[in-house]
UniProtKB/TrEMBL annotation:
Residues 1-42 are annotated as: Disordered. It comes from Microbispora rosea. This is Predicted Zn-dependent peptidase. Keywords: Hydrolase, Metalloprotease, Protease, Zinc. Residues 210-390 form the Peptidase M16 C-terminal domain.
């Protein structure tokens, strides 16, 4: 292990003998309208010889920077019989690296006045921090050091298995509606292990993980050619590019792994399951349809986002107005694109409806109202006023979502690693505002009864309601 470092001082390291192109180039790619444009705040791209892709978005006069590293690996890349492995490995990446002691990453970022964290999704894992601009080089050093190699030991592995198990108890097994529906609905909607299994993990699988498996997972998925580094905020692009080359340039290149096989045939019938929850006070119902591919059918995907707002966007949403306020079938109802949010996964992903209801309401009643509203929208389209409200709501909501520095940095990296389209962060509001009534009608018509998964949640002591 290399020499330890004084807090706040990046370690001097041999600069790579290679000569990466460090002059960042503004990105001008075709938008969905076919016109080339540069983001309101220009996005710059560069790629190091080891394959690391870099996204830079300077924001003038901002005194802070966001830094994220997105690795192209998530729940859907986990080995068979190792459910939860990607999330477990995310935890291990904070347990020290070649020159950074256990938890020192957190301590040094916090000492610099910043914050750091990580998360695991279906198709990516990200590590992110927001710090004063003066600490940019420190964060780049810390991220590069663990890209060189985390400190994977038996002690660290056993400790993090216990930490993840406690997280599952806290967020899923000992919590009302915990993990519902994202941990369980995919098992009804999909067939393949990659798409259907519980990404949080089973205890037996987590306890069976070995150091050798962790080392192999790192070697396979955590190379620079399988990652995107993003910097957004107050910095000068040329200076940042030189820092990136200095700290990441000598991370050895490794072949990018093959993508997991995710394609599945469309559903031919409605599927039902049942989920029991010992802590839930009321029954619930989740229904899921497969979304259009966000890469190849983007307009269809956007139309589903607007459709969701028409259905449950505020008190005047169609389902909210009927189910909650008029007929009082449910306590609450929501819809949305993606298990973790819109554009947060590759194809296939899920259009969700989730409702909490009284024991007197049958799931078929809720589905009946959903089908009536979807059928009406498919036949006649949305009314002009409700379409205007929905497009305004989704567009403005997207602006707000990416207004925060950390959220913007993470979205830039996620959209790039998933879709090769970091610019979506700035393009989405206008694209959503342009969705028309015909597109919404087609989206509603695609959510057919015979192409969905239905998963009632049954509280302890209740009889099953499922058909």
């Amino acid at each position: 292990m290399g020499a330890r470092l004084a807090a706040g001082t990046p370690a001097p390291r041999r600069r790579s003998g290679r000569n990466p192109r460090t002059t960042p180039e503004p990105s001008t790619r075709p938008t969905s309208t076919g016109e080339a444009r540069v983001s309101a705040t220009p996005i710059h791209r560069l790629t190091l010889p080891n394959g690391l892709r870099v996204i830079l978005q300077p924001i003038p006069d901002l005194p802070t920077v966001g830094v994220s590293v997105h690795y192209n690996v998530g729940f859907r890349s986990e080995p068979a019989d190792r459910t939860g492995f990607a999330h477990l490995f995310e935890h291990l990446m904070f347990q020290g690296s070649r020159n950074v002691r256990k938890l020192e990453h957190f301590r040094r970022v916090q000492a610099a006045g910043g914050s750091a964290n990580g998360s695991t999704h279906q198709d990516y894992t990200d590590y992110y921090q927001a710090v004063p601009s003066s600490a940019l080089e420190l964060v780049l050093y810390l991220e590069a050091d663990r890209m060189l190699g985390p400190d994977i030991t038996t002690e660290n592995l056993l400790t993090q298995v216990d930490v993840v198990k406690e997280e599952i108890r806290l967020n899923v097994t000992n919590r009302p509606y915990g993990g519902y529906p994202w941990t369980v609905l995919p098992g009804v909607l999909f067939d393949s292990y990659a798409n259907a299994h519980n990404g949080y993990g089973d205890f037996e699988d987590l306890e069976s993980a070995t150091v050798a498996e962790c080392e192999a997972f790192f070697d396979t998925y955590y190379g620079p050619g399988n990652a995107v580094l993003t910097i957004a905020g107050g910095f000068e692009p040329q200076a940042a590019a030189e820092m990136v080359a200095r700290w990441f340039g000598d991370v050895p290149a490794r072949p990018a792994p093959p993508a997991p096989t995710l394609a599945e045939p469309p559903l031919a019938r409605e599927r039902w399951g049942e989920h029991h929850d010992a802590h839930a006070p009321l029954p619930a119902l989740a229904a899921g349809h497969r979304l259009p591919d966000p890469a190849t059918a983007r307009h269809g995907y956007l139309a589903h986002m607007v459709l969701s707002s028409i259905l449950t966007g505020g008190d005047n949403g169609r389902l909210t107005g009927r189910m909650v306020h008029r007929d009082q079938l449910v306590v609450d109802v929501r819809t949305g694109c993606g298990l973790f949010g819109a554009f947060e996964a590759r194809d296939p992903d899920v259009f969700l409806m989730v409702a909490t209801h009284s024991p007197a309401t049958r799931p078929e009643q809720i589905l009946g109202v959903l089908d009536e509203e979807l059928d009406d929208l498919a036949r006649r389209g949305p009314q002009e006023a409700e379409l205007a409200r929905a497009t305004a709501r989704t567009s403005a909501g997207t602006y707000r979502t990416y207004d925060g520095l950390t959220a913007r940095t993470r979205a830039l990296g996620a959209f790039e690693v998933l879709h090769g389209a970091a610019e979506l962060v700035d393009e989405l509001p206008a694209l959503l505002a342009a969705v028309d009534a015909e597109q919404v009608g087609r989206a509603a018509g695609a959510l057919r009864r015979d192409a969905r998964a239905v998963l009632p949640l049954v509280p302890a002591g209740s009889r099953a309601n499922a058909a």
